[in-house]
Protein 1
Amino acid sequence: MRKVLISLVMVALIAGAVLGGDIAVKREYADFSTATLASNKVSTAVKTSGYVQEIVLVPTGISTQKVEIYISHEGGNMKQYVYTNYTLSAETTVRPRVDATDNAGGDLTGDDPTRYLINGGVLTVDVTNVNKTASSGLAVLIKTEK
């Protein structure tokens, strides 16, 4: 009986590990090596599905950049902004969350914010190099969970 119980627990643990959420990691790089204008803009669009766990932004070179991250859901033109920073100059980890709303669309204040769910939509990172230095760039690491 004990062996059967232990076997059932092990099967449940293995099933949980297999069926549980896997973390998918996507790496993108915004290259400013040809930047000539202060308003030079690079957009990186990543089609993805799942919950957005975190987005890591790693600027390289002499860097002061404006960064905007937004989600566009499939079939729509609406942009849902999840992060904006006008003076990104150091590595930053963003863990975007959204607050639940009531029937009228007002934010609920008594609940914990939840992760963004992208179901076949696009996560876009827009970066503007405001220093126009040839040695500036931005690595973007996007982590999602199924």
Protein 2
Amino acid sequence: MKSSLLYIFAVMLFFALPAAGGAYQERLLLSLGDENCSLRVEADDEAQILRLRVHPGPPRCYATKEKMQSILKSVFSRPDLSKPAGPYTSLFLGRLNDYPWLCEYVATAAYQDPRWDRRRGKPVSMDLYKYVRTILSNREVTGQFEEALENSGYKIVSVTLEKVCVGHFSDVPLYKGKMLPGKVPVDAVVWFRLGRK
């Protein structure tokens, strides 16, 4: 009987307490597209993160460079983008293969680079994450994003990665080029760290 009362009390206490994850809230800043394929920018004000998200995601939906630039330009030109808690510190892209042109750029850059071992699918003398970070930090990549941030007071200061994956050109979404032999980087979870100009 005593253990039953303790169990009931514990269950009541569990439901009475607020959920630990309840404080996390993403708010939608802008969405371009429709229910079949949209690009969204969401804000987590508490964590000071902006998230660019493809919805519902591959293989039904991918982000084009033009849509990415258009939505970021719209969001970063908003006067209400700054908030009392301070500036946003990062732009979370999610998976690299949501952005086929960017995924292809990384794969092709590695394939053509003598510092990349295509046979083994890894850099000749560098950490895999550092290597891919170097490619994504290239002005040719960051410039495509900073063009949209132009008058916002923000700039990209660094790239952070998780879960870098190596595969073949057949793993690059929407790739129409020659299926080259060997292994290349084809996916990663990507953040651009933001700073103030």
